[in-house]
Each structure stands twice: as structure tokens, then as C-alpha cells.
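Hi again,

Forgot to attach this to my earlier email, sorry! This is the prediction with guanosine-5'-triphosphate bound. I've pasted everything inline since the attachment limit keeps bouncing my files.
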Amino acid sequence: MKKCGLISIIGKTNVGKSTFLNNFIGKKISITSKTVQTTRSNIFAVETRGQNQMVFIDTPGVHGNINKTVNRYLRKKTLENLDDIDVIIFMISGSMFTQVDQKALNLIKRSKAKKLFVMNKIDLVKNKGDLFQFVDDFKHKDVFEAFLPISAEQIDGFQAVEEEIIKVLPNSDFLFPEEGYKFQTINFEITEIIREKVIRNLGDELPHETAVHVERIDHKKDIVEIEAEIFVSKEGQKKIVIGSNGEKIKIIGTSARRELEQKFASKVFLKLWCKVKKKWIDNQDYLESLGIKN
Ligand SMILES: Nc1nc2c(ncn2[C@@H]2O[C@H](COP(=O)(O)OP(=O)(O)OP(=O)(O)O)[C@@H](O)[C@H]2O)c(=O)[nH]1
Ligand SMILES: [Mg+2]
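C-alpha cells for the complex follow:
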């Protein structure tokens, strides 16, 4: 009997949801960074193992501050598939359960999906007994089918997660071809790769106030030419992205180009610009044009 279902990965920002997806599937699908609010859209990926097809949705992390328009949209994105999904992987970091984790838990409680509680980053937990203690003391145990400690980064505990997913996956024909399915457009993948390099290279200096837009992509005979713009909201941020003598944007461009060359299995020419678009983060039309609001 075949099994197939939608599995949403939900939790506070930065707990390692995207790292888990990438390492579980063994392929980079979703960008990751040590900074908060890295994932901004729902990222889909399908993995078929034997008679079981798992359709994952990596969601934007739940964040404490929802005053900004962009944050309100991100939250909407996290929740938009909630009625259709079969399984929720609710993720926290170690045995830390903060107010924001509680907020995230409140958001998923109403869903009919089967819920698995995943404690990630256990490689950072010195005393493993803390994890058991946490589960013992946890007030909402009845919400979840299982409590699973993992390290997404060290690929530890994945077998148990897979077994629990399969247990609760509905009997169903496969929704997607067994050989896989490409959900995200190539333009989106390019903007995400560039955005990851911006976030990773600037980190806390310039948190998440950036957006990337692909202006041109040209598949030539033995090179792919890409021109893209990095948007920031303030003049000062543009200076940070460019760096002195253009050093920073060069580093960003080089690391993005390397990853793009792997993706296209071809030489890539990448031209990056940085532009100021005032208050883009609070501009609804603009968010829409970037695909953040839809
Ligand atoms: N030590 C350790 N670090 C981890 C583990 N999993 C993820 N990380 C790190 O945690 C940070 C956040 O990881 P992400 O996968 O981007 O987190 P996320 O939950 O997708 O974040 P948002 O998209 O902002 O919601 C990165 O620096 C990861 O390398 C883990 O198992 N152990
Ligand atoms: Mg993420």
C-alpha cells in the first residue's frame, strides 16, 4: 500500500528547519544561515522512499515581532497550507522552549495534522538528560505523536523521524513522479542563492532587509550570464553591501557564482548591483513583486 502526504516543518526562526530539510533529503533545497528570518517563502520538496512519498514544506520561521508588514506576510505564509497538510514537524532548538516557541505552538494547535515534536541541535546539549526532563515536564504532550531528538547538522536521529513520519502518513497514491519534481523556478533559486550569500557575508550587520531580483538570465553556448540586483532600504545599507572598494559585493558575487556554476554545471558570469529601494520591507506592492506577498 502506497503512502503519501504533505509534511510542513514549522517552528521559531533559526531552530534549523531548512538545515533539516536539506540534510534529510541530501540536497540543498532551502537556504540557511545563522541569522534569523532566512526562509521567506514556503519551499517545497518531494522525497520518495520505497512505497512512501513525503512532500515537505519548509516554512518561514515564527518570529516575535510582527509589526512590520513583511513579518505579517511571513507569518501568513507559514500558516497558509495548514488545512491541507497531513503531518507537522514542530521544531525547537535543544530543550529550549521560549515564548516564541509557545507562539508557534499556538499557531499549529488548531490543525488536524498529526504532529511530531522535533528537538534539533542536540549536539549542543551537554546534558542529554535535560531532553528527557523537558519532555517529562512538557505541558502539551497530548498534542504530539512523538518526541524526537535530532541534530540536523550532524544528520543524527533522522531514522526515527522517518519512521514516525511514515507511521502517520496517509494511505494514498503518489502525488508527484517518483523521480522527483521541481517546485521552485530557476529564477527563484538564483535569487535565493544570492540572498543566502548576502546574509551569510553580512550577517548581523545587515539582517534581513535585503531582497534580490534577477534582471537577466541568458543561457549561452558555454556560459550562463546572470545579472541581478540586491535591494536594500537605506543608503547606509548599500555601503555595507558594497563594502570598501567593492570588496563585500565581490565576495558575495564570487561565492554565489561558485554555487550557481555547480547548479548549472556550466561556467557562470554573474553581475551584481546594489540599489536602494526605500522602505521596500513595508511596501505591499513591492513585496508582491518579489513574490513575498501572494
Ligand atoms: N549546532 C547545530 N547547529 C544547527 C543545527 N541545525 C541547524 N543549525 C544551525 O542553525 C542556524 C539556523 O539554521 P536554519 O536551517 O537556517 O534555521 P531555520 O529554522 O530554517 O531558520 P528560519 O528560516 O529563519 O526560520 C544555521 O547556522 C545552522 O547551521 C544542528 O543540528 N546543530
Ligand atoms: Mg529556514
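Residues 13-19, 32-34, 36-39, 60-61, 120-121, 123-124, 151-153 surround guanosine-5'-triphosphate (ligand 1) (CB under 6 Å). The chain has a mean pLDDT of 91.

That should be everything now.

G.
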